[in-house]
Amino acid sequence: MADVKVLIAFYSRTGVTEALAAAIAEGAEAEGAEVRRRRAREVVSAEVMALAPGWAEAAQAMNARYDAPTAADAEWADALVMGTPTRFGAISSELKAYIDGLGGLWVQGKLNGKAGGVFCSTSTTHGGNESTLLSMYNPLAHLGFIIVPTGYADPSLYKAGTPYGASSVSHNEASPPTADDLDVARFQGRRVAAVAKALKAAGVK
Questions:
Q1: What percent of the chain has pLDDT over 70?
Q2: Cα separation, 53 vs 167, whole angstroms
Q3: How far does CA 17 lie from the centroid of its chain?
Q4: pLDDT at res. 2
Q5: CA–CA distance from 127 to each of 31, 90, 132, 133 (Å)?
Q6: Residue 74: CATH number of its domain
Q7: 193: Cβ–Cβ under 8 A, 6 or more apart, which residues?
Q8: pTM for the full predicted model
Q9: CA atoms within 13 A on the CB side of 3
Q10: What is the extent of the structural domain holding 185?
Q11: Contact, 181 vs 18, CB < 8 A?
Q12: Is there a contact between 136 and 91 (Cβ–Cβ < 8 Å)?
């Protein structure tokens, strides 16, 4: 049995954020963690989805690959890493809906002392990656997580990502993350898993 359990809860529409989630999972598993990847579900109507070509088809494909995240997943995990595309410089409504469903665990204090991290993607170079990542720190703090930033604790951060979490820019073409982006994501997975392991061993609450 793994020493530490990591939940990666993300929303992805075109697969860019999904690719970052996969790299974070690789890093966490390299640190010996058991990982669950979960995709948040759409909260808009089919009519709205139809306005963006390929959205419904991509959602169906990804939902076949991943279960939806649940409160039970968060309780199971020693660490939660959340990922989202930016939506007007902030978290997507799909992922926020999942976070808002964790109130039952919050009131019981069941998320206190777990490690938390964030990652995101955006379509444009200055499309709000850092503001989105920082906005995701707020619910982590309220829920009792110990926030684990990437910092500049690995050489990969001098080429890509942010000190707050892994990120990617798709240049309005759903371009996949670069090799440098994925290196940051793998480092983030390793770091969050290592910190979660240490917190668990120390009995931090």
A1: 100
A2: 24
A3: 8
A4: 75
A5: 32, 10, 9, 12
A6: 3.40.50.360
A7: 4, 6, 27, 28, 31, 32, 33, 79
A8: 0.97
A9: 15
A10: 5-202
A11: no
A12: yes
